[in-house]
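Q: Protein A?
A:
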Amino acid sequence: MARKKEVLGKSTGSVGILLVVALLLGVLNACAHVGPDYKPPEQETPDLWQQELTKGLAEGEAALQTWWTTFNDPVLNSLIERAVKGNLDLKEAFARVREARAFRGVASGERYPDLNAGGDAARSRTSDDFLLITTDQNRTDNFYNAGFDATWEIDFWGRIGRSIESADASLQASVENYRDALVILYAEIALNYVEVRTLQARLRFAEASAETQKRTLEITKARLRAEISGELDVRQAELNLANTESIIPQLRSSLVQAINRLGVLLGEFPDALHQELTRPASIPKPPAQVTVGLPAELLRQRPDIRRAERELAAQTAQIGVATADLYPRFSLSGAFAYQGTNGSDLFDWGRRSWFFGPSFRWNLFDGGRVRNRINVEKARAEQALVRYQQTVLNAAEDVENSMVSYTQETDRREILQRAVVAAGKSVELVKALYKAGLTDFQNVFDMERSYFQQQQNFAASEGLVTENLVRLYKALGGGWEPQPEKIEEEVKDQEDRGEPIF
């Protein structure tokens, strides 16, 4: 019994020494991270927008988180609120966040030992040819084994640390991708809603013009019966009416399609919103003044720029992961098991077996594969940097284009409004002259056709002004408010509650 304690004490002391070694190696863990340390790219931006801030636009801090409320349209507010809960693209983007979070957990799990338990039982028979003639050996044997083994890689060169760093950045990129989907969704809801109201306005103008032209047609028929004017007047009036009525089916078809699209954006069937949106309403009006920020704020506000920067960080860390393969890998491994030929007393202390110790593996020659993998990761990082820079330029272009489109279309709408008023008065005057016999019907024909066209142009322009403002809000990255960089806590909190990320 004393001998057993002495052996146990020696083995325990050896294990203790090895544990101390393991702890010392653990202290060195993450002390030597090979590969480049990531630094966010320094992206220069203009001090001011090239497009002059004209009427309707002003400098200042832009309130973008709930930009759609500036239109004061309760129906639009309701649609956006429901879309956040039901849109399937948004749910898919959120599932990608959960996927990235799980991958991050896979990467961080490599910091810990890999512990496995196992056991087996076998019965074997030995051939007569391998038994000694002089022995009484049994031809059959039993073997039992039960225990566990463990392996722990010491992250001496930071391979695991770089993998976690890359997974962290990828997780953050997936969050920005979700936010980008949110920005796009808000804009798509608003654009389709404005299209619905614009089509309804155009439809009202078309139906009103058709009724007016029907009355004009009756006048020409009455004058023909009274032999005051010829049949040509009647045919021209019929032509004008037919041209106007031919537009109405197209407008109704486009209106149904726009409502269908809104239903799908809300995660519902296409016919879900027809009862709610069929009743006409006015086109949402832009606020009197729109505040836009500075170009430098795009780097903080636009989710696609933030995503591109995080993708660059993730790819930069992959260079370190590949570089670590140039150096040896250190690990600790061990096993403890009970082994015996009798299952009834297998767990007797004397039937124990174990081993424990450090090991390393170092690839000395691979035909240049590791160094080429490093070059691959470096080239991918260069591509990610270029994509980031291109994303910034595209974002600035979106804002500049949206600004000039909004301001110029606003001017065009005012001009068209004057044209509609002038055309309406011209129609009244020319019809009075026609009834008095002071002008021919060609002037009536031309003015009614022009009046209808100006009404259509004005309604389309009124909707386009609002649509261009929506595009400007989208280009500015509106729809969410940047928060302090606590991506991990934010995602976990939202995931636990099953709610979207704002």
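Q: Protein B?
A:
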Amino acid sequence: MEFVMKINSAVNSFVWGAPVLALLVGTGCLLTVMLGFPQIRYFVPAMKEVFSFRKKSGGADKSISSFAAMATAMAATVGTGNVAGVATAIHLAGPGALVWMLISAFFGMCTKFAEVALAVHFRQKDAHGDWRGGTMYILEHGIGDRFGKFLAVIFAIFAFLASFGIGAATQANSAAEALSMGWNIDHLYSGIFMAVFVGLVIIGGLKSLATVTTLLVPFMAVFYIIGAVVVLIQNAAHIPGAIGDAINLAFNNPETIPAGLAGWGVKEAIQRGIARGVFSNEAGMGSAPMVHATANVDHPVQQGFYGIFEVFMDTIVICTMTGLVILTTGTLTSSPDLTGAQLTLQAFENALGVTGKYVLSVGLLLFAFTTILGWYWYAETAVTYLFGVVAKPFMKIIWVVLILFGAAGGQFLGAVGNDFLNNLWDISDTLNGLMALPNLVGLLLLTMTLKKLVKDYDKKNAAGKITPPDFFNEL
């Protein structure tokens, strides 16, 4: 295992290192220019589309509404990375990391828009009549030939294996930790509850999954945002200074810094900020398109609007709020030894006292739990692509077992169980990064297809052939 983890560490430093991160952001920059800055010119239409809460679903077509597809994708996207990941980046690289996180998110909005539009365009029906889409289908049916098929299989394998850690075991562990931290609930009881509840949800298929996430995701986002807003209102006087420090340290090395934070610097801020931003919103990773492809929508570009909103809400809103809570409460410098969720927890407690602990524990619980639900669909889509619909029941069983082990395995196996979970997370993190490589190849090779889709949408929208969002009619 030690040898395996050394190899994993080397690969991880590559996929989350400067070359691949530059490729991720560079692809976003190229697409932004080639597609005419869709994250800007489609931003208002995207907001109107999302907040119309469009209910259009496919019925016998087995598709779901565009909003439900986005909610399921956001269930997987908005996770513990919005709390622990942001805190870790700021701890290791300073406040400047937050600025680079936002810069990467701006281009990530275009990347997510592009991969979602392609996923809807190239989606296929499986043997049970369910829509399946995502990078593997884009590569196989968009690029074609043996090269496209090879990349598709590689991506599906990476996604399938990455889901074990990112989507199931470690998320269950995070949820159990949140319940233990807030209410002293035993990890085993937490694991049993989550395994049973998730099992009941995924048995019902995509529509059951979408129904639950459509209810949970808006609630958890609003709940966390309100908690963060209360903290920021209390510390409003410190917000301008925090923003100023973040901008300054994003482009300038600090002249005087506390000894415990001596690793701060522009290079670290860029790399850590972009890495955590990409990890949080998953733009360029190819995961979210797997569920967006199931939406019943008039045009692929129209579903791409939801990809723009997804990155905006995940990183520009929620991650920014987490970062500002840490910076405005002074927790970063008063508790330099803390990192991850513990740093964010301390920030909330500094502002709200014991109430802050409960706000964050509930937030962490919801983030982790919905990630389990969202990533299940990714795992099922990957395994269906690799082995066919016959593998779906086995995937459900594996998922439930992983949840139970993730929540309570460390409790019964002690250090061995905890080491296994940590190793599983590290390997899954590497596999998640590797997913980006075939996905980005597909995006770059299909840029002209994307341009045609955008042009076709603009033409049909101008001719009134696209159903506009209508908030009151949808209600």
